[in-house]
Design brief:
With 276 residues, the chain is of the alpha+beta class. The protein has 2 domains: 3-63, Helix hairpin bin (Helix Hairpins), CATH 1.10.287.610; 111-274, DNA ligase/mRNA capping enzyme (D-amino Acid Aminotransferase, Chain A, domain 1). The protein has 9 helices and 8 strands. It has helices at residues 3-25, 34-50, 90-103, 146-150, 177-189, 198-206, 211-216, 237-246, 261-274; strands at residues 74-76, 110-112, 119-126, 129-135, 141-143, 166-174, 220-225, 256-258. Strands 4-3-6-7 form a 4-stranded antiparallel beta sheet. Helix 1 packs antiparallel against helix 2.
Length: 276
């Protein structure tokens, strides 16, 4: 590929990715699978790395998809809320493990968790009470959906135990398949278009302006990250999740520690079969 061909392909990829990002985050009506989207994004990243003169600040590789919506107050995140890096290749996991073993000088373990296909949420607690819930938005600011979050059955409004005075925890809001099938059956009976998948149904439900209707949609939440910038005294991610669990917060029960790449592979292989 010569320089002109690279420039044309880069523009093509940007146009496709921007449109599909809009459909995914704003319209909740994607026309492309996550896998296909990620493959195109990787192709664009590779081309921009090979041809840095074509890299721009407004490229999809430099921006987080935005789910900001009118009708909600937008508030800044205390810490940027960025996308998680993903991979579809065990070889990339092996490379990550090799880098970690080469770089880290002390003993360490890996914390393995399931990746849920939901919509990102940030919860903030003060003196044990939920006082703010934000969507990821554009990563810098998010929609304030506090009242809707309070209507989700497994998000506690009041914590218990020895919790910090103030902290933030992040995770995903999900729609279980049973609730998804029920919602789509109801929509079809009302001659409304069904949701394409549970992720989009969860995102659309979380952005409703009526918290009572949100409560009726059967959403649940799974939390997986306390930002390290919070300054809480945890020696590991697993310890942080154990603490969150003790405060009554919904964290993954399928979390496992792995001491090396072989145990990581065992975890992946187990859930690759079990999740079906």
């Amino acid at each position: 590929m010569d320089k002109q061909e690279a420039k044309i392909r880069i523009e093509e990829l940007r146009e496709v990715l921007r449109e599909n990002s809009r459909r995914y985050y704003v319209l909740n009506a994607p026309t492309m699978s996550d896998f296909d989207f990620d493959m195109l994004m990787h192709e664009l990243e590779d081309l921009e790395a090979e041809w840095p003169e074509f890299k721009t600040s407004d490229s999809p590789t430099q921006r987080v998809g935005s789910d900001l919506k009118t009708g909600f107050v937008q508030r800044p995140h205390r810490y940027p809320m960025l996308s998680l890096t993903n991979t579809y290749s065990i070889e990339e996991v092996e490379e990550f493990s090799a880098r970690a073993e080469k770089t880290l000088e002390s003993d360490f373990s890996y914390c393995c968790e399931l990746k849920f296909d939901g919509t990102a949420i940030s919860l903030s607690y003060h003196n044990g009470r939920l006082y703010r819930a934000l969507t990821r938005g554009d990563g810098i600011k998010g929609d304030d959906i506090t009242e809707n979050a309070k209507s989700i059955s497994n998000i506690p409004k009041q914590l218990h135990g020895d919790y910090p005075q103030e902290f933030e925890i992040r995770g995903e809001v999900l729609m279980p398949y049973e609730a998804f099938d029920s919602l789509n059956a109801e929509r079809e009976a009302n001659e409304e278009a069904p949701f394409a998948n549970p992720r989009n149904a969860a995102s659309g439900s979380l952005k409703l302006l009526n918290p009572k209707e949100v409560a009726r949609r059967g959403l649940i939440c799974t939390l997986y990250s306390i930002p390290p910038q919070s300054g809480l005294d945890f020696v590991s991610h697993d310890q942080a999740m154990q603490a969150a669990d003790s405060w009554g917060l919904p964290v993954s029960k399928e979390r496992r520690l792995a001491k090396d790449i072989s145990e990581i592979k065992n975890y992946i292989d187990y859930w690759d079969k079990e999740r079906k």
